[in-house]
Model the fold of this input.
Amino acid sequence: MMLFQDVSKKSNDFLGELRVYLFSSGKNEKEIDEIVDELHDHLREAERKGKSVEDIIGRTPKDYMKNVAEEMQPDRKQWIKYMFLIVVGSFAIDIIGKLKEGNLAYSVLQLSGHIGIAVLFVLLVLIGYKHLTGASPKKQFFMLLPVAMMPIIAFVGLIFLDRAVQTPVIHFGTWGTWVVGGISVLFLIAASVWAKTWVLIIIIALLNLPDYLLSKTNLSLEYRSLASTAVLMIGLVLFMWLSNKADKQKE
Amino acid sequence: MSTTQMLKGILEGCLLAIMKEKEVYGYELAEKLEDYGFDSFSEGTIYPLLLRMQKEKLIASELRKSTAGPKRKYYAITEKGEEELEAFKERWQELSKSVNQVLEGGKPGRPKGGEKK
Done:
């Protein structure tokens, strides 16, 4: 896919990789856009005069990206915001799925495990993308595969661990369930409006409709959880990148 | 100080001097440097440098619509930058004087001496 129509494919690749590299290094999105736009402008002018990416960037692209990254401050607030959105968002989706089963109940292990897995997953995605810079598509696939598998395996592990280890269970009661359920719905609507996207709503539908339909069959609970968890995590990442890309296209 | 650091310091001084003349955008800066004969380094080097100089408040940038259409980031020298430019000029004067003396084979401590080749 070509992000910029007026520069060569090589320049496009470089600019795309630079964006992902800086994004996964935790830099501020606005500053990333600025430096990418600036280099795009430069590459366009330079290519018009017959210069190549190598003439501009020199050395290896990765060294150059590192150089740029070193001069930019990481934006921790932005990353706390993303973490928060992903942890709360994945809980909200989980809660909505559970509502049809009656009153909510979470064990302490489920709660902490869920948060831990979500945070770990986001970190792994970031680290993964940062190290993908310049790798071949085949290598990229084999590097991201374990990252994509991690939450699925971890959530299945969590289900079994939760059965084996008894931790206090928090029961929400009828009112509690209504309140928590209501907050979840409001959060998801607010997040959808904020991100100006249908993605979340689509994910929830994807999650709950097949689940609901599956519950009519006699498949075991494990299979159903497995399928919904996989869709959830992959969907969240897609949402993150899609909304990021949508923001970019709006400019 | 390593060689690259020294070159970066010199480049930084030159960028400040160009910006003192007028506000410029990235590509323009690279072109000017090339016009002055800097052609052995890759043009992209200026961007990490510009980022650092902004962090150190030597220069300030502003996004502005250019006549050609796309928004461009224009850089201008700040007061602190002008002070740094003066300091750089002095350092450079000193350095080039010493280097010239060495190259011309003059005796240490004298402003001029020895015979030119």
In short: Chain B touches chain A through 19 residues (CB under 8 Å).
